[in-house]
UniProtKB/TrEMBL annotation, chains A, B:
Any single Pfam family the record assigns to this protein: DUF1611_N
InterPro entries: DgcN-like (IPR011669), DgcN-like_C (IPR035086), DgcN-like_N (IPR035402), P-loop_NTPase (IPR027417)
The protein's name in its UniProt record: DUF1611 domain-containing protein
Annotated D-glutamate N-acetyltransferase-like N-terminal domain residues: 51-129
Gene3D superfamilies per the UniProt record, alphabetical: NAD(P)-binding Rossmann-like Domain, P-loop containing nucleotide triphosphate hydrolases
Chain ranges of the D-glutamate N-acetyltransferase-like C-terminal domain: 135-327
Source superkingdom: Bacteria
Length: 339, 339
């Protein structure tokens, strides 16, 4: 039986040889969303970037409880840089496994491969999905599920899911964040990189990710892509069907009018996106409904954001909030999810 | 740059050690749809199954022009049976490459692997998609495209596409059948096994499969799965978006009321299936339209089939035909595709 990716924890966050925070998106996400999993940060000698955490070398971090070094930054091109290799070898020697979301496989470097084998350490590439995933079976499962969906890629589906899972738990509910992308998997400590799964198994992977649970348990599932995206709609639809969500939250970025990176693809309206997403979701969960909109208002002043949120809520007659701006609007979105 | 799977041809069809035709679906498809590619049949000593073709051993077939031995039957479980190995080695020795759609990889057998290396032969597993597939870009392409879509799996999408491509050519048009499944790829001699592609690349693979062409050229693309199937809808949607079809032909099996192999999943009505398929297709081709219905009437008498076709056409006000039953109805479906 296949299982989710399950990462050794807690982590030592490796920042490589970066001098600024541009490439630290994964590290920032881990620091902000999984502080209990992050023991310290570590970087190449002389590098200037920092997450503002305690600095430890691998041996020290292992003594403090760390079990894996996580590549918490990206490189241009997504590879593993030569300058990192001595640091990664030091981590293996210190008893840490290595977790990477880079394009290059860790084991493709013979130095890492040989050291890991000699020391009995694991090299974990989280772009590699679990083996032997099942075909989706479409059977209903117990427990409650929420999936974040979007009008486009890269507009807050992961942070919305993390925020909602945290809000559910703050209300005393039993809720798990279920990760489908690399940073999400590192934050959750487990998950499936859904866009790396062979297409025939996407719905089955999503079923595995949010298995049958107690009737009152919530799985809050990180969405991927968009059913309105000409490159990735198939991934999003397989995830939607396999997740069998009771609740959808539609994520949108204020002011975005076109699919990022493509020409000739205007975004759907909020209303069109809600109605199509719910219609598609009802294939596997006839009770699926949209609880509201997560509106990314990054870059707006507090006033302008409140105004954009209020106008969107009026126009579509739905609860709307930016989870990055806690307050009454977000509380109402949470209420609507749980109603 | 990645390319389609491109098979060495013509073929010697290998029937293994089967005694009856139950497992010969691929062989029957090749014999019926690609007779010019099939030099002869070949089987283990004593096996009784036959496609009714000339029988040749590999050396003889090679002398007659064959360039590949094709595993033209399935085994229970999809593996490569021990009894076949001596025959496959004989084929390699005779100068033939081997083409397989089995679950087991040919190269996983060291005897085949070593012989192929020594002889400079290729072991081609058509379940393995090409490397380095692109992400879909959604850009319009020149040329005309038709995609067969379905209310379910396994109801005639491949045969419908083959029949329409043949009918287009019979009318003097320049038309290619574009294969997305194993048997289809063997029939076409090239293609991409779309359900084996990593989900992120499905739309890109479909774009590669039906590239920009002369304005009057038709690609007639083999559909896979169904956007109404809870296990495979994502595959179908990625193929739909990447294919950018001008024309959809909806395939349905007369009398089928539920998704095969699942409980609780009634098929959509023809009307619902047409309207949803066209709506989804219009994301990447705003001019997409459904030309009609391919109704699988296998098992019905000629009279009952004609009646079922007429009733379906009346009910939905669309051209309806069973491509396995040539005649006026099919001619009208072809007219509607080309209108």
């Amino acid at each position: 039986m296949s299982a989710l990716i399950d990462l050794p924890r807690p982590y030592l966050l490796f920042l490589g040889d970066a001098d600024d925070a541009t490439f630290l998106k994964t590290g920032l996400g881990l620091r902000d969303w999984a502080p209990a999993l992050c023991v310290a940060e570590y970087k190449c000698d002389g590098a200037l970037a920092s997450l503002g955490m305690p600095v430890m070398r691998p041996g020290e971090a292992h003594a403090a409880g760390a079990r894996a070094l996580v590549l918490a930054m990206a490189s241009i091109g997504g590879g593993i840089r030569e300058a990192w290799i001595p640091c990664l070898l030091e981590a293996l020697e210190a008893g840490l496994d290595i977790v990477s979301g880079a394009h290059d496989r860790l084991s493709a470097d013979p130095r890492l491969q040989i050291a890991a084998e000699r020391l009995g350490r694991r090299l974990i590439d989280i772009r590699t999905p679990p083996a032997d995933l099942p075909i989706g079976n479409g059977r209903p499962r117990t427990g409650k599920r929420l999936l974040t969906v979007g009008t486009d890629c890269a507009l807050g589906k992961k942070y919305t899911a993390l925020s909602l899972a945290a809000a559910f738990r703050a209300r005393g509910l039993d809720a798990d964040f279920r990760a489908t992308g690399q940073t999400g998997i590192m934050i959750a400590g487990s998950g499936i990189p859904i866009d790396a799964v062979v297409s025939d198994f996407v719905a089955g992977a999503a079923e595995l990710l949010s298995p049958a649970a107690d009737p009152d348990h919530w799985d809050v599932i990180e969405g991927q892509g968009s059913v309105f995206h000409p490159s990735y709609a198939g991934v999003s639809l397989g995830l939607l069907h396999g997740s069998q969500p009771d609740i959808l939250v539609l994520c949108h970025a204020h002011g975005r009018e076109n699919i990022v990176g493509l020409s000739g693809y205007p975004l759907p309206s909020i209303g069109e996106a809600v109605s199509m997403s719910v219609r598609l979701a009802r294939l596997t969960n006839p009770a699926a409904r949209c609880a509201g909109v997560s509106l990314n208002t990054a870059g707006l002043s507090a006033e302008a954001a409140a105004d954009a949120i209020a106008r969107c809520a009026d126009q579509w007659n739905l609860p709307v909030a930016d989870p990055m701006r806690p307050g009454r609007a977000f509380d109402e979105l949470v209420n609507a999810c749980l109603a």
